[in-house]
Each structure stands twice: as structure tokens, then as C-alpha cells.
Amino acid sequence: MKEDPLPILLNTISSEVNAMPIDLVLYILVVFILIFLSALVSGSEVSFFSLNSQNLEDLSKIDEKKEKKIRNLLKNPNKLLATILIANNFINVAIIILFSYLTSKFFSFENGGTFQFIIQVIVITFILVLLGEITPKVYAKKNAVSFSKKMTPIIVFFNWIFTPIASVLTSTTSFIDKRLKQKSADISMEEISQAIELASDGVEHEDEKRILRSIVEFANIDVREIMKPRTDVIALDRNTSYSEVLQLIISSSYSRIPVFEESFDNIKGVLYIKDLIPHLSSNQVDWFSLRHEPMFVPETKKINDLLNEFREKKIHLAIVVDEYGGTSGIVTLEDVLEEIVGEINDEFDDDGHQYSRLDTDTFVFEAKTTLIDFLKIVEWEADYFDNVKGDTETLAGLILEQNGVIPKISQEIKIDNFTFTVESADDRRIKRVKVNINK
User: Fold this and answer.
1) Neighbours of 408 (CB within 10 A)
2) What CATH number does the domain located at 223-341 have?
3) Is residue 328 helix, strand or coil?
4) Identity of the highest mean pLDDT range in 10-19, 240-249, 367-376
């Protein structure tokens, strides 16, 4: 009868362990401890840099001291990253050295070659990547707040220990970065948009993604694309009586109103309604003298430049003029900001007045709706009509560009994936259109 080989194997291993010198046992224990520490430090890199302001606010309610320490670390992200990488590399080098020493004790590498390479390179690389990089980083990303909270004392300690080396490294990288910055290639807006798409990993980031995309496209938008056209602008003739001015202010609910003389192409200023408040009890007021100097901007001005000009001059409204000096319309600070954050509605706005949604792919729009707003509402690419719209900026303009003449009611105009049906129009302009999306 043959003996069972398992007890023999276990006895052999037991005798080998019993015969193992105590220093080798300590070395093995140290290697396991270092691998665990490497995992903690590696995971902290992801956890600290995954924290957002809301995470920190939540943490401050739980542990205010830890939250302050984390904020102090994040004030200098380059130094924090350098500290984490230095600590992780020191630990990994120690693991490799100890592992090589231990394997040389357990295995005979007299001839070297493939076996030694597999044991001392491939095995330790696999262990470090799996246990020291991938696993802890995946865990740390899902538990950023709790992981950062637990790792704060260790990272603060490493930050203090490795300050001299980290300072040298951050100074060196800053110098190199400044030297290479001039030589760096320009990144196109399309590449940034693609990066935003790749960086988003779920529908919960749709709002953030939309804002980022709007910021990317912000510098390419002209004033004429977002302005309110002159046909929709409420303005005051300088000869208007004070009582009529008050009635217009009440009916319009605007805080700033352009003032013209003889025609809207001759703007003389902008009346701020707040300037009339001290005179409300008077029956006769020279309201025209209270006007402010108007700010004129061309239709082709980029809205990022306009935003800077609004901020520098502390003005909220500008008169948009065409190439001939005629008034095209007005643009406000709110119009500019809406291109980033979306529609801003106050208590006087009529929500949804621009369009109504009949079903998933059918809408009814005011024809004066800008193409930018239209494409945002139907959730289409902002540059979709760039090749066909010409110089037009509204739905009505797009339809006229394609049709050549003012279409009749119920006439359909197909443009790529969209079918536009005219619902209301007269001899001069298109008023309302129905839009079907053909997917």
C-alpha cells in the first residue's frame, strides 16, 4: 500500500520552516509589511487627488482636525505628489532588494538565466503592480474620503521626512516646466472636448461635463450669436415723458433700458432704473440726464473678451453694432454667463416661452431662437450647422438660408437630421417652426 504524499509534503515544509533561520523569517515579515505600506501610499495618491470641495465639507463635519490637515496638504499639490512618489519608490526599492535577497537564499541561481529572471523580476513586478498599485488605487478611488482620513497622519509624517528631497524635485520640475512651456504644442478645442468625454465615467457627471464643454466652446462664440436682436429690444425715445417712462419700466421689468434719439441706430445712453428711485415721488424729472454712457461692441467680438470688458468697466449691458455702425441689438452679462452655466431664470422670466416639447423628437420653437440655444435644447453638437448656416444665427435665418425665400405656412424644409415645418409666418418673417429630429 502506497503512502499518502500530502503528509510527507507537509512534514517536509514544516521541517524546512523549523530549520529556517530567524533572520529570514524577519525578512519575509518585513517584505509583507512593506508591500502593505506600498499599497497604502499608492492608494493615497488617488484618494487625496480625488477629493472635491463637497468631500472636504462633509469630512469637516466628521473630523475637523483631519480636514484641516488635508487642506494644508492639498495647498501644495506638487509637493504632496512628490512626497507620495518618493515614499512609494523608497518602499518599492526596499521590497525589491529584500525579495532578491530572500529568493537567493531559497533558490540556487548558479547558472542565472531565465529562471532567475522569472523569480526576481517578473514575480516581484506582478506582486507590486497587483497588490501595490492596481488594487489599492481602485479601492481608494471608491472610498476617497475614508481612505484619505486614515492616511493623513502617515502622509503628514512622510511630508515632513521627505521635505528636503521633495523641495528639490518640485523646484527642478518647475524649472523644466517653464523651459518647456514655450515649446509645448497647442491643444485644439476638439482634443479638449474629447478629453472631457473620456474623463467622464457616468451620467452623474452630465452637468459638469456640459459646463466644461461650454467653457471649451466659450472663446469661439461671437456676440451676434447670443445677442437680443433689435426687434426684441425695449428702448426709450429721449422725448418720452416721465410718466410714460415709469409705465414702460413697470411693464417691461428690466433694470437697464437703452435710450435713443430719433432712431434706434442713434443710441445716446442706458437708463439704470435704480437711478430713478430717489425721484419716484416727483411728477416731473429730467430722466434723460440720468442716463449712463453706452458701451458699444461689434457683432464679431468674442464673448470671452466681452466678459473681461464687462468685468473691467463694471458694466452689465452693451449695445451691439454692425459693420455700418447701425444697432443690431443688445447683449448683457447674463447672456454671456448663460453660455457657461445654462439658462438663468429670474422671477420675471417666462419659463419655456422659447419652445415646447411635443414628444421625444418633436419640438415647437420660436423662429428667433438662436442656433446655439436650439442645439443645446435638443442636445446636439454646437457646431452641427456650421457648414450650412452661412452668416445666420437663428432658426429663421437658417431656414431662409436654405430655402432662399420666406416659406409658406406648413412648408417643410429638411436639413440633415432635422425637418423644419413652418407653423406661423407672414410676408416679412418666420415666427414659429415645428422641428422633427430624424434619428
Assistant:
1) 8
2) 3.10.580.10
3) strand
4) 240-249
